[in-house]
Structure formats: structure tokens, C-alpha cells
Amino acid sequence: MVRITEQLIRKRSEHNELVIGTLEELSLHQEDIECIEHIDRWCRDLKILLLQSNLISKIENLQMLKKLEYLNLALNNIERIENLQGLESLQKLDLTLNFIGELTSVESLQRNYNLKELYLTGNPCTDYDDYRNYVICALPLLETLDGQDITITERLNAAKSFEENRSRIFQFQNDYQIERGRQKVRVSQLIREQEESVKHLDDEQRTAQFWQQKSEHCPEIRNLMAKYAKRAREKAESSVKNSTVKTRKTILFAECGRPYNLNEPKLKFLFHDEGDQYKLDLHVFKYLDTSYIEVDVQPNYVRVTVKGKIFQLALKDEVLTDQSACQRSGTTGHLSIALPKLNTQNVSFNQSKTKALDNVQSQPHKMNRELKGTVDYRHIVNKCAQKGKAHDDGDEIPPLV
Predict the structure, then answer these.
(1) Number of other residues whose CB lies within 10 A of the CB of residue 143
(2) How far apart are the C-alpha atoms of 302 and 283, rounded to whole Å?
(3) What average pLDDT does the segment 226-242 reach?
(4) What angle, 0 to 180 degrees and rounded to 10, lies between the N-to-C axes of helices 131-138 and 152-160?
(5) pLDDT computed for residue 124 by the predictor
(6) What gap in Å lies between CA 75 and CA 257, rounded to an integer?
(7) In this structure, what are the phi and psi dihedrals at residue 82, rounded to the nearest 5 degrees?
(8) What angle do CA 395, 397, 401 make, to 5 degrees?
(9) What letter does residue 319 receive in the DSSP assignment?
(10) Strands 325-328 and 92-94
(11) pTM for this one?
(12) Is the dihedral of CA 149, 152, 158, 159 positive or negative?
């Protein structure tokens, strides 16, 4: 049996910062709750209470909820409408798909002056003749019944034959109570026989046989179905916990120490070699919080971890880790990393060892000279030009302006 505890209510009140004293809306659906308790003492400011899809058999312990406007008890095991007189603000009551056979119990709602909408679809009482006319006349302030608006004509016609309908409703519900008593005996005997016949089977076979057999529509069978469904959920959860999931280990480096290129988060990126620095533009998700991103710059690689997934890029030249900069765009969310190179002068020109062309007109004595070492490409302009002097480009080329 699932009980309504303070921990359960706080778990369902995350939208109110786990404060239950000022809670105005509470949803406890699909929890297999069998009894309503504590709510009227802990959450007196409730305006909406959702208790559908549980195993509640009796309406109780709700009298103190003076501000409650909407109560949903659909898909439960309720057989009688009761204990709702204290809900003076109640406007909507949903009792869809319960087992209400005592239709005259709706008269207990006559003191709920604000009640405008009532849902009884799927209950045995809706099969009674003149069910709608009886409810309309029994609750004169009601505006909607089972999702259909109540017209003035309906109300006038129902009032003409109310006493006659009421006497027939009593007869219908008495017949139902007799049949319901027989059903309880029949179902309890059937359950005992089934339990006796599956003793020799294991849990899996018992569950399979239960779901394949025919059953009656009653609270006892619904409780039994919830019991088997709970077992199946617990078994599935335990199997997941006990199973050993083998995760692939991420290898970041080769045996020789060389870093690998990885892109586990599968992000798009742009990588530029600008001569004196590398620049990485990583297309990180726009609305991802920056706290989920970690950047690690090493001399020969850069690593970005996005929500535990690694993006790693190996660098050809060493970079200055202390001078590297990282920025994130506030518009696109992209991550931009600037990586200054350690040796910006070491730009090699692989020139083949061939002789200079014979048609070179100037400096014929340097035709056979080979280029060795490195070239300072940043100071390749003549020093005289840097000092503002005219550069001699020869007789055929005019001086630069």
C-alpha cells in the first residue's frame, strides 16, 4: 500500500520550491495510492488536487480544503460520493471511470453551491434509466454534466418527473448492490482458485497467465492488476541495476604520447592556421550553459569537454598555453579559442636544389645560391622602405607612391 507522505508531496511540489504550506496545485496521479490522508492538514491552500489513476476506494480527509476548486478522482475504486460537503469553493469534480452505483449519493453535493461541472462517465450509475434527468434535478446549480451543458429545457423537463425518477433510481441501485455483493463473492473465489492453480509456476509464467485470462470489471480486479504491474516495474528496475553495462573507454593518446583527434559530442568546428596563431571556432549548442563547458589548452593539443563528452584536436606546432584566450559568442553560442604559437619564426620553405633560371637579369652572381634555414617573413619588406625611403624597383618599375 502506497501512503501519502510528506516526502512524496514535496517531491511533487518542485514548482513551489518544495514548500507545501503554500501549495496551490498538487498532482499525485499514478502512485497506486489507496487512501487519502494528511493533505487537508498539510496543504490547506490547495486549489487544484489531481488524484486520478490510483486505487482510492473512499473519499475522505478533504474537509479542510476550503479553497479547493478542482478535484480529479478519475480512474479509482470509489463506489459512493461522500465527505465533500466542506469543499465550499469546489467548482469541478471529476469521478470518471469509478464504480459508483449508489447514484442518490450525488445529493450530498447539494451544499456545494459553487459546483458547476460534474463528470460521472464510465460509472455503473450512468446505465440507469433517466440518470441524467435525475442528476440535473438533484443538483439545480449544476451547469455541465459529463461534458454537456445543461439547458433550461432539460432542467424543466427533469423537474416534472423528479419524484418518479428518484423512486426508480432507488430500485436500480438496490438491484446493483445485490449484484455487486454476488460479484464480490464470485471474484474472491476466482482469485483463490487462480492462486491455487499457479503455485507450481514461476513469477514470469504467473504474470503471463494472469494477463491472458478473462476478468471482470471491479475494484478487486483493478487492485490485482496494479499489483502485477508494480511487480513488473520493480523487476525491470532491478534488472537494469544488476546488469553490467560495458562502456567504451575513451583513448586520448597513442602509446607514444601523441594526442588523438576526437569529437565525441559531434560538434561542427572551423580550424584556421593564421601563421602566428591557431584559431578554433567550435559550434557549441546555443542555449547550453557555459558551466557545462571545460577548456584545456596544452602545448600540443586543445581539449574541450561539453557535458562530459570530449572534443580534442592535436596541434602541429606548440602553442603558448598562458597566452591562449577563449571567448563565447552571446549571439550564436559558438566557442572561439585563440592559440598563439610558441615559435612564430619557424616557417620552413622547402625549396628544391635547382639552379636559378638563366634569364634572371639582376644579381647574376647569386643565381646558384640556395635558400637555407628559416625566413623572417614578418620583416621581408626592405628596411629602407620601412624608414620612409623610396624603394628602387629597377628601371622598368616605377617607384611605389
Answers:
(1) 12
(2) 15
(3) 82
(4) 100
(5) 95
(6) 64
(7) -160, 165
(8) 120
(9) B
(10) unpaired
(11) 0.61
(12) positive
C-alpha cell, 139: 443538483
Of the two residues 341 and 239, the one the predictor is more confident about is 341
Contact 285, 265 (CB under 8 A): no
Read off the amino acid at residue 111: R
User: Which among 115, 102, 28, 104 has a CA at the least distance from the CA of 68?
Assistant: 115
**Which residue, chain included where needed, has cell 491472458?**
212
Spatial distance between the Cα atoms of 116 and 50, rounded to a whole number of angstroms: 18
Cell 562530459 sits at which residue? 308
Q: Is 281 helix (H, G, I), strand (E, B) or coil?
A: strand
Whether residue 73 is predicted with pLDDT greater than 90 in this model: the reply is yes
C-alpha cell, 245: 553495462
List the one residue out of 70, 62, 120 whose CA is nearest residue 91: 70
Per-residue pLDDT reduced to its tens digit, 145-175: 999 999 999 999 989 889 899 999 999 999 9
Residue 388 predicted with pLDDT over 90: no
First to last CA, the chain: 95
Rg from Cα positions in the chain: 41
